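For this section, I looked closely at a protein sequence along with its fold in token form, which I now present.
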Amino acid sequence: MEFERKVEDIEEKIKELEIFAEEKGIALGEEIQKLKDFRDQFLEEIYKEVTDWDKVSISRHPMRPHTVDYIEYLVEDFVELHGDRLFRDDPAIIGGLGKIDGKSMMIIGHEKGRGTEDKIKRNFGMANPEGYRKALRLFHMAERFHLPVLVLIDTAGAYPGLEAEQNGQGEAIARNLMEMSDLRTPIISVVIGEGGSGGAIGLGVADKVYMLEHSTYSVISPEGCAAILFKDSSKAPEAAQNLKISAQNLLRLEVIDGIIPESLGGAHRDPERTAINLKNVILSSFSELEQIPLEDLLENRYNKFRKMGKFKTKIEGE
């Protein structure tokens, strides 16, 4: 986005001043702080006006933290578990056991990868059926050992290739929806970047569903929606607005349960700060959910998704 380049210019000037001050032994702290204050004020003003289409770009930012980043920032003693025990491992979904502030849990999430080689290996975070079946295996493991489940969602969608369809992509996602709805342990899902289509909802049936402040969650990408409805992919910004894909719109529509604040300027500007905000919500939510009797938890989860889809009917003459 254009404003990102302006911010980068300001930050470059800050770095130049810091290097110059260190090399020459000159006190430039006041001038550097003024530039930092100007940058922060500029970001605050810009982010007050971002549209749903802007949020699509922010959610796809190449430096936005991924699942592996949040695991690195938050999780102690993480042990990754591989394979679906039916076909093979899918690197597009990672999962394993770990602790956050000493609390044991199962952690599962999409992973888009960093760098060309890693992105290809992880199929850009677009999981095949074996990825969803691996996640399902880990869900049941968590249930067996009475561990809560944390899911981090970040995908443009499930992989739509021929092989994926031949191997049962639709069935794998549908089975996850069914099994997660009745999983006898607390589940929290957080959309940390893109939450696209069935690829996202295949890991999204949870007691609490949160979104990071500038993430997106939608049945289809704005580009795909514009191509289908308007026959013109250049109308993606209009489609994004109509899809109501931002966290703020989805909270108002009661599709999600809350919004987790990001660092100023987006999670990519201060991942550790965003990770701390994420941790606080995760721990407080699990603490709340674990106080609810299991049968009531399952009933609440079922009702949560059954009541979605409110609409108003306009009566003729009104």
